[in-house]
Write a structure and sequence with these properties.
- This protein is α/β, with parallel strands linked by helices.
- 26% of the residues lie in helices and 21% in strands.
- The protein has 7 helices and 8 strands.
- The chain has a 4-stranded parallel sheet with strand order 1-2-3-4. A 4-stranded parallel sheet has the order 7-6-5-8, with helices on one face.
- The longest helix has 11 residues.
- α3 links the parallel β3 and β4.
C-alpha cells in the first residue's frame, strides 16, 4: 500500500501521543488501550479479537468515519454508544490459492491451529483428550507461536503421556498441508470473535 505502517508493541507507549492516523487496528486484551486511543487521532478503527469488556470504554468519537468489528453482534454495541458512526464487520478472507480441499493421507488425528495463549485453552484441550479411552494412540499436532502458557500445556502433555507435536510459527502453505493431513481441527478457545483458523480448515 502507499503509506507508512507503525507497530505499537505496548499500548502504554506515549511516543505517538497527539499524532494522526488514517487507520488503527487494535489486537489483544491490554487494559491500556482506552488511554492509548484517547491520546491519538484517527478516522478509521478496526477491532480484532479484543476483550469485549474493554470495547465500550475504548472509543473516543472525535472524527471517526467508520469502525470495523469482528462480528455482527458488535455492530449493535457501536451503534448504541455512537449511533452517528458507521460500523461494519471486518472480513477475514482466506487465501484460496493456499487453503483448498485436497485428498491427502492423514498423518494426524487432531490438529489445533492457535497461538499458545491462556485464552486458547490448550491445557483444557489436552485434559479432554486424556479422558478418551484410546488417547495414547492419538497423534496430535499444535500449530502456533509458543508463548509462556505453552509451559503449562506441555506439563499436562508429559503428565498424561500424550503424543503431541509442536510446530511453532510456520508458513501458511505448511499450515494448509497440516490441516489437510489432519482428521479433525479443534479450537478450545474460551472466546473467538472471527477465527480465521476455522475458515481455513473448511
Amino acid at each position: 500500500f502507499d503509506g507508512s505502517l507503525q507497530v505499537v508493541e505496548s499500548p502504554d507507549n506515549n511516543i505517538f501521543r497527539g499524532q494522526y492516523f488514517d487507520f488503527v487496528i487494535v489486537r489483544g486484551e491490554f487494559q491500556e488501550y482506552p488511554i492509548f486511543l484517547n491520546n491519538i487521532f484517527f478516522r478509521q478503527l478496526a477491532f480484532c479479537s479484543i476483550n469485549q469488556k474493554l470495547f465500550p470504554n475504548i472509543l473516543n468519537p472525535r472524527d471517526i468515519d467508520i469502525i470495523y468489528v469482528s462480528e455482527k453482534s458488535e455492530i449493535k454495541t457501536v451503534q448504541k454508544k455512537y449511533n452517528w458512526i458507521k460500523a461494519r464487520v471486518l472480513d477475514k478472507p482466506v487465501d484460496e490459492s493456499i487453503f483448498y480441499p485436497k485428498r491427502e493421507k492423514k498423518k494426524y488425528d487432531i490438529c489445533c491451529v492457535a497461538n499458545f495463549r491462556p485464552r486458547k485453552h490448550h491445557a483444557m484441550l489436552f485434559e479432554a483428550i486424556n479422558r478418551l479411552p484410546y488417547h495414547r494412540r492419538l497423534k496430535i499436532i499444535c500449530v502456533g507461536r509458543l508463548f509462556s502458557s505453552a509451559y503449562e500445556a506441555r506439563q499436562i502433555v508429559n503428565e498424561y503421556d500424550l503424543n503431541v507435536a509442536y510446530t511453532d510459527r510456520v508458513p501458511l502453505k505448511q499450515v494448509a498441508n497440516i490441516l489437510r493431513q489432519s482428521k479433525f481441527n479443534v479450537l478450545a478457545s474460551k472466546i473467538e470473535a472471527n477465527p480465521r483458523a476455522l475458515y481455513e480448515s473448511l
